[in-house]
C-alpha cells in the first residue's frame, strides 16, 4: 500500500496537515454537540400534550361595566358555541395546557404534610372538559353536572372530586397509581379531593417544569371577570369556526371584550419558540461550519496538488494510472481527516462534559461521536474528490517539461 | 509605502480571486456569527441601567417552608411585607410594584374598549428607574397615601388613546373608574426588563401605571406570577393578602454604602421580628441585591445564548484556522514573487510589513462583509423570535461594528503571522532557479 510514502509526504508539510486536522476536530465538536442539543429540543417539543391538538382553539371573554353578568353571559355563550355545526364540544377552563401560565398546588395522601406532597398543575373546568379537550379517560368516570360547583372568588371549596393524570396518581401512590380511583388526597389549606377518574395524559401549562405530566382537574367554575372557552371542532373545521364563534359572541352585545382567539397549535408553538429558534440557529451554524471546512479542505488540496504537479507528472510517466493518483490524494485526505476526527472525538466529549456540568444537560449518547466521525470523513472525501480528480488528469508529459 | 502595499495586496487578491474570496468569506462568516451572539449576550447579560445599577436594590426575604425539600425562596414579596417595608422608612426612594390587567373604555364610540397590561407602583418608581417623560410626570407620595385615581400612560397607549397629543389632565375610564392622566412617558424599553424579571425578562413594558395600593383598594385584576408556600386561611381577598403568597416586587434606592448598611440593618431587624412571630423560617444567603446581582441571582441571562457563545467561539476558531491554512497556501504560492523581490534587494522587514498589510486587507474586507453577515443574522433571529420578546435592542450599534472590523483585522493578522514568517524566510535562490 501507499501509506508509507503518503505519511512521509505529509510529514514534510506538518503545519498544513495540523491546520486541517484541527479544523475538522473543531467542526466535529460543534456539529456533534449541536446535533445533540437539537435532538434534545426536538424531543421536548414532540411530547404530546394529551389534547386533540389539531382541532382545538381557545377564546377569552373579559367583562367590563356594571351591567355585565359573567355567569349569565358564559351560560349563554356555551349554548351558542355548542349549537354551531362542526363543534364537538366546548368547556370553560382556568388555564390552557402548555401555554406558559396557570395555577399549581401540592397534593398528598396526608393533610398538612407539605414535605410529602407532590406538585401538580390545577385545572378547573366543567363537566364537558374531557370531551372538549379530547382527553383519554383510562379509569373511573368523568365529571357529572352535579359535580360542578359555580360561584365567585369566595366560593366554599373545601371538598370536591378530582380527575388526575396517571403520571400524577403514580407519583402519589407509587406502584399502584392505576388503583387510585376512590381514594382521597389532600392539598394545603385543608382541602380534600376524592379521585373519581384518571386520564392517560394532560400536560401542565409549563413546558419547562419538572412535573410536566402531573395535572389535576377540578370541577369548578369561578366567576372572576374573565372566562376562557376551549372549543373542539371536527377535523378541518377549526379555522372557519374560530371566526364564526368570535363574530357570534361579539354580536351578543354584552359589555365585554373578546381576546386571544387562537388555535391551540399556535399557542403551543409559541411556548416552544425558544427551542425552535435555538434549533434553527444551530442548523445554520452546522451548515456554515461544514461549508467553511469543506472549502478549507478544497483550498489546501488544490494548493498541495499545484505544488506537486511535477511529481505527479513524473509518477504518471513512470507508469502510475489515473486511479492510482486519485487514490493517493483520497488516501492522503483520509489520513488527515482520520487524525482530525480522533482528536475531534476527544474534544466532543470534553465539550459535552462542559455542557453537562454548566447547563445540567444529560450526557451525550454513545453513538453520536462515531456517527460524527464518519460524517466528517465522508465530508473530507467529498471535498477532496474534485481536486484529486483534477490531479489525476495531469499529463505525464509535464514531467519532461522545463526541468 | 502603506498605500503601495495595499495596492499590491489588492493585486494579489485579483491574481488568486477564488482562494482570496474564500478567505474573506471565512473571516466574514466567523466574525459575523460571533458578533450576532456577542450582541445578544452583550444586551441580555448587560447592565440595563448603568447609571444606577449599584444603587437600586431588591429585597429577598427568608421565604419558604423548610419542611419542603429543594424549595427555592420566592423572589417576590407578600402583601404584608411589601406594605410593611413601604412604611418602615421613607428616607430612601422605594417602590412596591406589581402587574394588573384592566379594560379601558375610550371616550366616544369610535374606539371599542380594549385590554391593557398595567402596573401598580409607588410614586418614586419613575425617578428611581429614570423613566423618561414626554408630557407631565409621575405623582406625589401623597397620591399613594390618598389612593388617588391617577395614571401615567406609556407612549404607545397615549398614541392610541389621544393620538399622541399632550393628554395631561384628561380623564381615562379604566376598570370602570375615572383616572386622571398626570404624565405620558417617552418611548422606554429597558432590556432586560430588570424591575420585574418574574414575568418575562424581555417582555414589553406595561401601558398604564397607577398607584400600587389601588390594585387592592379598587380590586383590580392582579396579574403576574404568584407563589404561595402556605395556603390562605379562608377564602376571599383579605385571606389571600394575609397569606404567605409572594407576588410583589420591591425596590429601594440606596445612594451609597452607608445607606445600604443602614437599610440592611432595618431589613434584618424586620426579619428578626417576623421570625419571632413564626414567619420567615427559611434562611437566605443575602437579603439585598443590587440590579446586576439580582439579574445574576434570578438567572435572567438565558442558557441558550451562553451555549451559543461557546459554539460561536469555536466557529470563529474554525474560520481562523481556515484562514491560516489558506494564507499559508497563498503566501507559499507566491514564493516565486517573493524570491524576485528579495533578489532585487527588498529586505525581510519590508516583506514582512507587505504581507502583514496583505493579511490586514483581507481581514478588513472580511470585517466589512462580517458586519453584513451579523446584521443579516440578527434580522433572521428577530424574525424567528417574532412576538416572543421585545427585539428592539437587537441591533448593531457603532461600537459593535467598530469591534467587528478591528477583531477581523487583528485576528486575520494573528492568523497570518506564521504564514507570513514562512513566506519571508524563503531562500530566494531556490525559487529563482525554477523560473
Topology diagram in text:
The complex is a heterodimer of chains A (403) and B (435).
Chain A: H1 3-11, H2 14-46, E1 56-63, H3 70-83, E2 87-93, E3 104-107, E4 118-125, H4 129-133, E5 137-140, E6 149-151, E7 159-165, H5 166-172, E8 184-187, E9 191-199, E10 215-222, E11 226-233, H6 238-250, E12 256-263, H7 264-271, H8 273-307, H9 309-317, H10 322-359, H11 368-392
Parallel strand pairs in A: 4-10, 6-10, 7-9
Antiparallel strand pairs in A: 1-11, 1-12, 2-11, 3-4, 5-9, 7-10, 8-9
Helix pairs in contact in A: 1-10, 2-8, 2-10, 2-11, 8-11, 10-11
Chain B: H1 2-15, H2 17-44, E1 56-59, E2 77-78, H3 79-88, E3 94-105, E4 114-121, H4 125-128, E5 133-136, H5 141-146, E6 150-153, H6 155-162, E7 171-174, E8 177-185, E9 208-211, H7 214-217, E10 221-223, E11 227-228, H8 237-242, E12 245-253, H9 257-276, E13 288-290, H10 291-297, H11 303-333, H12 335-343, H13 348-385, H14 398-424, H15 428-433
Parallel strand pairs in B: 4-9, 6-8
Antiparallel strand pairs in B: 1-12, 1-13, 2-12, 3-4, 3-7, 3-10, 3-12, 5-8, 6-9, 7-8, 11-12
Commentary on this structure:
The complex is a heterodimer of chains A (about 400) and B (about 425). By secondary structure, chain A is α+β, with helices and mostly antiparallel strands. Helices cover about 50% and strands about 20% of the residues of chain A. Chain A is built from eleven helices and twelve strands. Chain A has helices at about 5-10, 15-45, 70-85, 130-135, 165-170, 240-250, 265-270, 275-305, 310-315, 320-360, 370-390, and strands spanning about 55-65, 85-95, 105, 120-125, 135-140, 150, 160-165, 185, 190-200, 215-220, 225-235, 255-265. In chain A, a hairpin with a 3-residue loop joins β8 and β9. In chain A, α8 runs parallel beside α11 (about 370-390). The mean pLDDT of chain A is about 90. Chain B is an alpha+beta fold. In chain B, about 50% of the residues lie in helices and about 15% in strands. Chain B has a six-stranded mixed beta barrel with strand order 3-4-9-6-8-7. In chain B, a hairpin with a 2-residue loop joins β7 and β8. The two termini of chain B are about 30 Å apart. The model of chain B has no long low-confidence stretch (mean pLDDT about 90). The chains are: A alpha+beta (about 400), B alpha+beta (about 425). The interface between A and B is large, with 65 and 60 residues.
